[in-house]
Here is the input.
Amino acid sequence: MQTVRAEMFSLDRYRDRLLQLHDHICPRQILGLRMGELAGRLLNISLPQKDKRLFVFVETDGCFADGVMVATGCSLGHRTLRLMDQGKVAATFVDTRSDPYGGLRIWPRPTIRQQARALCPDLSSRWHAQLEAYQRMPDDELLAWARVELVVSVKALISRPGVRATCDRCGEEIINERERWVDGMRLCAHCAGEAYFASPIQRAESAEAQTPA
Ligand SMILES: [Zn+2]
Ligand SMILES: [Zn+2]
Here is the structure.
């Protein structure tokens, strides 16, 4: 992996946009901004992007993800950001133009909290020390990065615009080729058993079953 001389990080560039999303600016947003900027330099993509060239997997939601979004221009709305909810302040950036099967994963070095305290001993709290230090630390002290090979297909995730299907069981529309085929039936994820909520029908049945005779 090439090393890239960091430009001076400037929070001012992002402040307004962050404050549209939040009533505060916090250390995790800074980490998201710093990772986004570093990805732009290492992949040689000018950010924040106006097109959809860069795609990012964030490994947690929250303030961090907003930092990544603001620095890169990637978003759920542009279908260039996806949450892989692994509870980690880390992200993998994919240049869909040159390498849709490989990514650049960036994560914080494990000792940055202690380093922040050492770098800013005069600040009133650990939180304030992190907020300040994460803006000042050079890329290679703050972050680690590595090329990774993707085991999910960004092309399949993005799918094609205008593709529509109808679920043979519930009748709801399915876009982006997310249907499943089960016993010759075209089903939505929910009807194929990949539910994240209990349907009203299931609830009614279980309520009945629990009613004492
Ligand atoms: Zn925050
Ligand atoms: Zn269905």
In short: Residues 201-209 have pLDDT under 50 and may be disordered. The pocket of zinc ion (ligand 2) is lined by residues 167, 169-170, 172, 187-188, 190-191 (CB under 6 Å). Residues 27-43 form the longest helix (17 residues).
